[in-house]
């Protein structure tokens, strides 16, 4: 239990920036939430990205081959957005979301 608390404290310190649970909650409130995608050299956009954004009010932020922060922070941000989507739309969004979103598990 104490180890988990220490791990969470370290994660809170490391993820205190733009990609954190706290920031995801702020982005949801502000209507600026997005799902984070790790791409390759050049980002790939699909026509369905716009439809997803219009339907669920969540866009995508697509990175190149280098992540802008620790993967744990990016996953924490996305997991917060996943919970919001599930709470608002049930599981319907999982059928339409890009499958390359960081931390996505559609099971």
Describe the overall structure.
- This protein is mainly α and 107 residues long.
- Helices cover 52% and strands 9% of the residues.
- It has 5 helices and 2 strands.
- The longest helix has 19 residues.
- The radius of gyration is 14 Å and the shape is globular.
- 21% of the residues are buried.
- Overall body shape: globular
In spatial order, strands of the major sheet run: 1-2
Low-confidence regions: none
- Average predicted local confidence, pLDDT: 85
User: What class, by secondary structure content?
Assistant: mainly alpha
Strand content: 5-15%
Write the layout of secondary structure elements.
Elements: H1 2-14, H2 21-30, E1 34-38, H3 47-56, E2 59-63, H4 71-89, H5 93-96
Parallel strand pairs: 1-2
Helix pairs in contact: 2-4
Which structural traits does this protein have?
two-stranded parallel ribbon, globular, mainly alpha, 107 residues
At a glance:
This protein is mainly alpha-helical and 107 residues long. The chain has helices spanning 2-14, 21-30, 47-56, 71-89, 93-96; strands at residues 34-38, 59-63.
